[in-house]
Design a protein that fits this description.
By secondary structure, the chain is an alpha/beta fold. Helices cover 39% and strands 24% of the residues.
Length: 179
């Protein structure tokens, strides 16, 4: 689904093949994440993911950093299947791309980073407490390395207003003990 092109079998285009006795699928190329087939694939993937977690005894999960449409599909399944979730679309201010000589170069788009950040906060504010309080928000950058310093510095105050969890680094275990 990423990259704006999806190849999928269209369920409505399946027809029985009398000579072979099995269904054949017509392949179609779709563009963009709003295509019906892409949404159906996403919904199916979300349903399978949540059902597998429940089947394996997981009662709470955290999904962060993925696109908003992935979070929305998981949000729907949380309501249908009754699992607790911390959800949060990712944000960042740029990407790594291949530069001259194969070296990675960071390309910054600060405006897009702020737009993604606002979208993540909006999603969290709209969904926290949904489905009998099974949904909570978590605000996590996709990659700290691709966020601007300004975005990382300003977000804690905005996160507090949204009443959601924040994690900018992996959790660590402390062995210090006080006496």
């Amino acid at each position: 689904m990423s990259g704006g092109r999806t190849i999928s079998a269209s369920p409505s285009s399946r027809s029985a093949s009398p000579s072979r006795g099995r269904a054949s699928a017509a392949i179609r190329v779709t563009r963009g994440p709003d295509d019906v087939a892409a949404r159906e694939d996403l919904e199916l993937n979300a349903a399978f993911t949540v059902a597998e977690m429940l089947r394996n005894g997981i009662t709470t999960f955290v999904e962060f950093g993925s696109q908003r449409r992935v979070q929305e599909a998981l949000h729907e399944q949380v309501g249908k299947l009754g699992i607790r979730a911390y959800l949060g679309p990712g944000f960042d201010s740029g990407r790594w791309v291949g530069g001259e000589g194969g070296k990675l170069v960071r390309v910054v788009d600060e405006a897009a980073g702020w737009q993604e950040f606002r979208g993540a906060l909006e999603f969290i504010e709209q969904t926290t407490g949904d489905h009998n309080d099974l949904v909570r928000g978590i605000l996590v950058p996709r990659e700290v390395e691709t966020c601007t310093v300004d975005l990382m510095r300003r977000q804690p105050a905005r996160r507090r207003r949204a009443s959601c969890r924040w994690r900018s680094t992996p959790p660590t275990t402390s062995t210090n003990s006080s006496t």
